[in-house]
Specification:
CATH class: Alpha Beta
Shape: globular
Number of strands: 10
Number of helices: 10
Bound molecules: ligand PBG
CATH topology: TIM Barrel
CATH superfamily: Aldolase class I
Strand order of the largest sheet: 1-4-5-6-7-8-9-10
Structural class: alpha/beta
Strand content: 15-25%
Helix content: 25-40%
Number of domains: 1
Largest sheet: 8 strands, parallel, barrel
């Protein structure tokens, strides 16, 4: 069977920041920008002309505060302005916590909400004394609030990516009780503790200030565990399950597709994207041909949708 990629197969990830008239370059992430909401709308308008149909929003506020409403206002305005555009929002804390971890930590005196407990003369280096243990209930509470606020703004999908246990279940329940039964969930189900996320962390300012994410992201050497995580997310109510990264994890994409009868998303992450861009700049390969090969491979493995920073280019190329 011949695999053909279509515009409809793609989701473009956008980084949304506070302020006005901003389109900021990002280190080691050529062609990707942080947009303020006004400039975001212009960029989406451009991409819509080429048939981009789905976007995934990441909030990157100027001030690290979990109550930041940049994404909320972006969703509202996008929904006002564009019809039939599927809007998904990332639901995580890593761009909002000062330590860059995806959840609130046990004994955390660095994130919003714990400010009262913060000693007066706290220095950056005392991050080292924080125990790297995620406080599950505080994290779930924060994630749930964010997810409901995105749904209220009109998001079609929320995508919890903090890897907190039971995050899909808790968010599904909260969406239902708040009257958002139609808001769907894309679970970051098999999200590996990967080395491919470098440029994204520059974009979101979310690199962990200490430790790493291996206590809550998955071990890439253990496929059985990834399978269990996918099964759990489906049981908890995920409408789409995601495998991330994509290229080095085609076997996991295939497994997700074959074992479970649900839509599978693959996240072609920032490091994978930057490889292609820098290689093309060096004359190692033709960017367009390389992107088509990669996207075809991801789809061939079993992905129903592909989240990719190449998505706007692919839409143009297919026009
Ligand atoms: C974390 C998150 C990450 C990405 C999206 N959300 C990775 C991380 O920092 O652990 C990576 C996406 C990419 O590299 O494109 N919530």
């Amino acid at each position: 069977m011949q695999i053909n990629i279509k515009k409809d197969d793609f989701i473009y990830p956008y980084f949304v920041t506070s302020g006005k008239n901003k389109k900021e370059r990002i280190k080691n992430f050529p062609g990707v920008y942080r947009f303020s909401v006004d400039r975001l709308l212009k960029d989406i308008e451009e991409a819509r002309k080429f048939g981009l149909g789905k976007v995934l929003l990441f909030g990157v506020p100027d001030k690290k505060d979990i109550r930041d409403d940049t994404v909320i206002s972006a969703v509202r305005k996008i929904k006002d302005e564009f019809e039939n555009l599927v809007v998904m929002t990332d639901v995580c804390l890593c761009a909002y916590t000062s330590h860059g971890h995806c959840g609130i930590l046990v004994n955390d005196c660095h994130s919003e909400g714990a400010a009262k407990r913060r000693p007066k003369n706290l220095k950056e280096r005392s991050f080292a004394s924080l125990r790297m243990t995620v406080d599950d209930s505080a994290t779930l509470e924060a994630l749930t609030k964010i997810a409901v606020s995105h749904a209220r703004a009109g998001a079609d999908f929320v995508a919890p990516s903090a890897m907190a246990k039971k995050q899909v279940f808790v968010i599904r329940k909260a969406l239902d009780t708040h009257g958002f039964k139609d808001t769907k969930i894309m679970g970051y189900s098999a999200k590996f503790a990967s080395n491919f996320y470098g440029p994204f962390r520059n974009a979101a300012g979310s690199a962990p200030k200490f430790g790493d994410r291996s206590s809550y992201q998955l071990n890439f050497a253990d496929v059985k565990n990834a399978e269990r995580e996918i099964a759990d997310d489906i049981k908890e109510g995920a409408d789409i399950v995601m495998v991330k990264p994509a290229l080095a994890y085609l076997d996991v994409i295939r497994l997700a597709k074959e074992k479970f009868n649900v839509p599978v998303a693959a996240y072609n992450v920032s490091g994978e994207y930057s490889f292609v861009k820098y290689g093309a700049k060096q004359g190692l390969w033709d960017e367009k041909k390389m992107v088509f090969e990669i996207m075809t491979a991801i789809k061939r493995a079993g992905a129903d949708v592909i989240i990719s920073y190449h998505a706007k280019d692919v839409a143009k190329w297919l026009s």
